[in-house]
Known about the structure:
Elements: E1 9-17, E2 24-33, E3 37-42, H1 49-56, E4 64-69, E5 72-73, H2 79-89, E6 90-93, H3 105-109, H4 111-116, H5 120-133, H6 149-161, E7 167-171, H7 179-194, E8 198-202, H8 206-211, E9 214-217
Parallel strand pairs: 3-8, 3-9, 6-7, 7-8
Antiparallel strand pairs: 1-2, 1-4, 4-5
Family: Belongs to the ABC transporter superfamily.
Protein name: ABC-type lipoprotein export system ATPase subunit
Pfam families: ABC_tran
Amino acid sequence: MSSSSQGVLQVRELGFAYSSRGSTVLSGVSIDFEAGAITALTGPSGCGKSTLLYIAGLMLRPTEGAVLFQGTDVSALRDSDRSQIRRNNMGFVFQDALLDPSRTVLDNVLEPAVFAGVPRRHLSGRAHDLLEAFGVSHRASHRPGQISGGQAQRVALCRALLLEPTVILGDEPTGNLDADSTEVVWETLDSAANQGATVIIATHNARLATRAHAHIALS
C-alpha cells in the first residue's frame, strides 16, 4: 500500500505489533502525506487506522520501517526529541477528546501554549476565537464533565489548532458530532489544508472520505 507524492510527513515500509507475540496491526505501509491536503484513512475497526495516526504523530514507535518528518528519519530519536517535534509542529485530536477534567475548557484549549513555553496572554485571544468559531465559547469556564461529548470534541479540535500546527491528525474528529457541527469541523480542516497544513484523519464516515484530497483504505 503506497502513495508516491512528496510530503512533509512520510511513513516507509511501516510495520507494527503491540507485542512480540501479538498479531501484526500494520505491515509494509508506505505513504507520503501531502502538505496542503487532507488525507483520509478508512477501513474496518482493528485495521490499524488509529495506530497509524499515533505512529505518524510520534506517539508510538514503529516495529518496522521509518517515519520521516521534513525528510529526516525521526523513528529512532529520543523520546524528548520526538516530543519536541510533536509539540512544535503537530496537533492531535483524540477519538474521545481526552480533555483534562480538572481544568476549564479554556485552560484545555491553551494547554499546548503551556507545553510550548508561550505565555497564555499571547494566545488567549486566538483560543477564544476558536471556541467562538466552534460554537462553544459560552462553555469556556466550564469543566469537561459539564459539557456534552460533541462539545468536548470541538474543544479538543480547538486545542489541536491553537498553535497553527503544520501537521494535524484527527482520530474520528467528527465521530461525536451532528451533521452541522461535522460540516464546521470539516471546513476548518479544509481551511488549514488550504493554508499549507498536512491534515490526516481516520474516519468511518465514507461521505467525508470522498471529500478528502487523498483516500487511503487500510485492510
